[in-house]
Amino acid sequence: MKVQPPKLIWKFFRWFCRKDYLEEIEGDLVELFEKQYETSPGRARRRFTWSVLRYFRPGFIRSFSPLTNSNTTTMFKNNIKIAWRNLKRQPFFTFLNTFGLAVGMAGTLLIALFIHDELRFDRMFSDADRIYRVNINNRTAGETSDYASVSGPLANVMRADFPQAELITRFKESNSVLLRKDDSQKNVKEEKVVGVDETFFEMFGIRLLQGNEATALLEPRSIVLTSTAVEKHFPDGDAVGKSLTIDNGQAYLVTGIVEDMPKSSFLRDYQVFISLSTYEDAKSIAWNNWSYPTFVKLVPGADPETLHTFLSGVKDNYLIPWAMTFIPGLTVESSRQDEKETGNYMRFGAIAMTDIHLHSPNIEGELNANSDIQNVYILSFIGLFLILLASVNFMNLSTARSMKRAKEVGIRKTLGSSRPGLIKQFLTEAGLVSFISLLLAVAAAALALPYFNELSGKSITIPLAQPGFWLALLLTTLILGLISGSYPAFLMSKFAPHNALKAGGENSLKGGKVRNLLVVFQFAVSIFLIASTLVVFQQLSFIQNKNLGFKKDQVLIIDDADAAGEQLESFKTEVERLSLVESVSLSSYLPTPSDRNGITFFVDDATNTDNAIIIGNWDIDHDYLPTIGLELIAGRNFNPQLKSDSSSLIINESTLQMLGGTAEEAIGRQMTSDFRREDKENAHFMTVIGVVRNFHFESLRNDIDALSLTLGKGANKAIIKLNPGDFSGSIAQIEELWAKVAPGQLFNYYFMDDSFNETYEAEQRLGSIFITFTVLSLFIACLGLFGLAAFNAEKRSKEIGIRKVLGASVGQITYRLSIDFLKLVGFAIVLSIPLAWYAMNQWLQDFSYRIEISWWIFALSALLAVAISILTVSQQSVRAALSNPVKSLKVE
Amino acid sequence: MGEHSLGEFEELVLLFVAAFNNEAYGVLILENLEKKLEKKVNISAVHVALKRMENKGFVESNYGGITNERGGRRKKYYSITATGKKMLDRQYELRTSIYKEIPKISFGQ
Predict the structure, then answer these.
(1) Taking CA atoms, which of A61, A483, A782, A828 is between 20 and 30 Å from B6?
(2) What does the alpha-carbon distance between residue A743 and residue A722 come to, in Å, rounded to a whole number?
């Protein structure tokens, strides 16, 4: 028995080595091995192994690619070639197919990008899944409300007693501020300013471009600016270490620069961050200031349930003990008893930060407007419909043309082509079309993106550099090609060759029923979208024209009026003298976005917690009611002559509901917010002197909250009601007066109805997105119908010819050709209208104030659909009807 | 493509092929190389050089008869081609001509 080299290695060598080298090299290896084996078997084996490995290199490894003359690749190449020729032969249909598909794909692509952006909202922050926001759910006097902002002391309490909290950051919104550089007289306005705890940057994993994340916001009166804000205030870029004067008051030190906040985050608008330690009340231990949105990051692996458990105990463990210090007789037990009897409660809870944008409603204290997962669903449906409509087009046009290709299929089958082979060929064709459409769609989407961003209020980019994006795109295209190609492929490959080849053979239109069904589907979707769009727009205009309880037209607002300081009152008097000015009021509060303030009142008795209500409180002046146009239903307005009115108060109807009784009965009732003092009997009470009709000071999505109006100073807005006339002239006059009382201060004005419209931006965006994609889908559906009509006219040209010869009129023929399609559209109307009615009713449920859907909306959408389809079809039908019968009958 | 070049190791192998013309095969060349160079050489290096030079047209090969050694596998014998010989001559000339240019240097003996 001869010695053998290591078997496995040898096998490996024989597997990979080129066949033409094998004998020679193997021989040499074995010879060497045998020679060496005599002296040292071990080394011989090692050397053999090593040598074999050294041969594992290009030049010695055989080719592993499959046989080059494989039939599959040849057929594939051939299929592509045939597909290309077929597409070229019928440029009109090819154009309809690719164009329709490309439009559909581009629309869907945009929607997909939009949805992707919505879904990844707030997820870019480090450990986003461990961050939660504390919420309050509160019920007083039968009114439930939610707040996204909580008491200041809660953060400290959690830091001390809740070990699962890794970091806690409070926010404090401070609306707009005026910033002034040291060396400048001019104020520059910053709209989005927020106070944050020093943990802010660390908690959200935000890196500073300049400055230290840990210490930047430690000291009072430190501010951090975004790059955009730096550009605005310090064009030379040198900001850190400089100081800025805020609202003509104290100087703040710029301690850091941060990149602009991510667009897809709740922080997106903020430009200026102020250290929270700046604010005195942030250090307060009083629980009655509910203006701090509070975010908590849990330690890794912590159960969110622990947070909920801790928060559910906050009221009993911290809030009540604090209140006990000034409310005698209050105990945890007595407050529980109260809750049981009155049904009132206050619950602390938490929501995951990543859920805020899509899964929570807009509630008070929200740092930014939220979207709604419902919109994501709606858009997903629209996207899906768009792409389905486009592929339906493809199916319809392909099967309609199938007759033309019947001969081709017959010959192929006679020559031995198998059915799978034919199916493959048709699928290749579909794949090619969808691939070309894909390229067109990406280009179209890229072109349309800036407009789409405008429309949707986002800043989406196409991730062209990401391989995942292309992979997803290619995969979708492949699937789309398969879906839209499978039906025609299945149908066409079924032709029996003897029928297909017979002269004048089977001339019936194959797949007619399915095709009709698909047209019905297309139009049903289109009509559904038209009706929905109409409802959305009607609701929008309803909101804009609804009697809001106040008059928003011709009301000019001057922001930051407090910059005028002591001069503000004289400014008011001067403006009132202008000819076009009807009245002027000073306040910080408006029915449109502005300051908000909540206050706890004890009604009638300062010790009875049963009678406590939390309601909104606005500081206004004597002229506020007439200027805004609020209507008194009982009592009177504040009277400048009456000193006592400083402790008077006007309530709205929602507050009246909490108090109970009629408006007249409410006049003269006593309320106090002065319940924390020791000598309760001396508490300072306010008297109700008037009740105003409810007016919408929040979005119409919500009910009207309880509100109280009191006389107060410190207004930051001047509200000017103008008479119709030369607005620009009046504004110029007012600006002149402003420059006199507040030299160097910004004259910042807007009209209230503009500001009001901004409140409904989300709805308006949804409306525009809706209408855009409705038009797109209608367009695609018409493209398909157009193709079918053209084909139909062509196919029936002989019939038309004969009819004409026998005396049919153009009108009759046009009617015959069009009526078939109109029947389908009629079916679609019947199908889609109940669906649209149901869906839109669901959507409207979201609004507290909404329209009734009326029948004419559906009539109008049906009419639109019919009109558009007649337009589409008739052009082809008329052309066919007008053609000379000699031409169509001459052939053959 | 221009003139093929000849690497240093390839040149050595080619010299052996010329020396044992028609009798040169992998193991023989390897053993002689190891003897002359006084170091271990891997058989794969020899084969790589041979295959390369065959592609360049410096050597050609043919199988010998079946033997009883090496499991009955045939040996592949290499011989030098005219181009190969020309290449060797040129290399040799080049070297000697340059070598002659070297001035007489005394290394201070």
Answers:
(1) A61
(2) 24
What is the reported pLDDT for B2? 45
Q: Which of A759, A779, A799 is the last residue of a domain?
A: A759
Distance CA A71, CA A49 (A): 39
Backbone angles phi, psi at A144, to 5 degrees: -100, 140
The verdict on a CB contact (< 8 Å) between A27 and B44 is no
Give domain status of residue A879, yes or no: yes
Calpha distance A484→A490 (Å, rounded): 11
Any domain includes A120: no
Please tell me whether residues A158 and A289 are part of one structural domain.
yes
Structural domains of chain B sorted by starting position, each given as residue range(s) with its CATH number in brackets: 8-100 (1.10.10.10)
Is there a single domain that holds both residue A534 and residue A608?
no
Q: Which chain B positions have a beta carbon within 8 Å of A57's beta carbon?
A: 48
Please report residues of A whose CB lies closer than 8 A to that of B73: 23-24, 26-27, 30
Claim to verify: residue A269 and residue A390 sit in the same structural domain: no
Instruction: Give the Cα separation of A815 and A793 in Å (integer).
Output: 12
**pTM score of the predicted model:** 0.67
Helices (H), chain B: 8-19, 26-37, 43-56, 82-101
- Rounded mean pLDDT of chain A? 84
Which residues is A364 bridged to in the sheet? A147
The answer on A344 and A422 residing in a single domain is: no
Same domain, A848 and A709: no
A833: in domain: yes
DSSP letters along A534-567, please?
HHHHHHHHHHHHS--SS--TTEEEEETGGGGGGG
Cβ of A27 and B74 within 8 Å?
Answer: yes
Contacts of B27 in chain A (CB under 8 A): 28, 31-32, 35
Its ipTM equals 0.87
- Reduce the DSSP state of residue A613 to 3 states and report it: strand
Which residues of chain A make contact with B30, given a CB cutoff of 8 A? 28, 32
Q: Sign of the C-alpha dihedral, residues A295, A299, A303, A308?
A: negative
Structural domain harbouring A18: 7-55
Q: At which of A359, A384, A407 does a domain end?
A: A359
Residue type, A340: K
Q: How many other CB atoms sit within 10 Å of the CB of residue A642?
A: 12
pLDDT digits (tens, 9 = 90+) for A601-647: 888 776 766 677 778 888 888 889 888 888 888 889 998 888 888 88
Of A21, A30, A59, the CB nearest to B70: A30
Give the CA count within 13 Å in the CB-facing half-sphere of A289. Answer: 16
Q: What are the pLDDT digits (tens) for A324-333?
A: 887 777 788 8
Residue A404 has pLDDT above 90, yes or no: no
Residues of A in contact with B47 (CB under 8 A): 21, 24-25, 28, 55, 60
Contact A112, A381 (CB under 8 A): no
pLDDT band of residue A891 (cuts 50, 70, 90) is low
**Among A31, A50, A57, beta carbon nearest to B70:** A31
CA A244 to chain centre: 36
A797-805 vs A855-882: helix axis angle to the nearest 10?
70
Interface of B with A (CB under 8 A): 25-27, 30, 42-45, 47-48, 51, 63, 69-71, 73-76
Return the ∠ at Cα A366 (arms to A764 and A256), rounded to 5°. 110
Within-domain flag for A79: no
When divided into structural domains, chain A yields a total of 4
Of A135, A152, A195, whose CA–CA distance to A289 is shortest?
A152
Q: Percent helix, strand, coil in chain A (nearest 5)?
A: 55, 15, 30
Q: Are both A770 and A754 inside the same structural domain?
A: no
d(CA A209, CA A306): 36
A59 has a chain B CB within 8 A of its CB? yes
Does A851 lie in the same domain as A813? yes
CB contact under 8 A, A30 and B73: yes
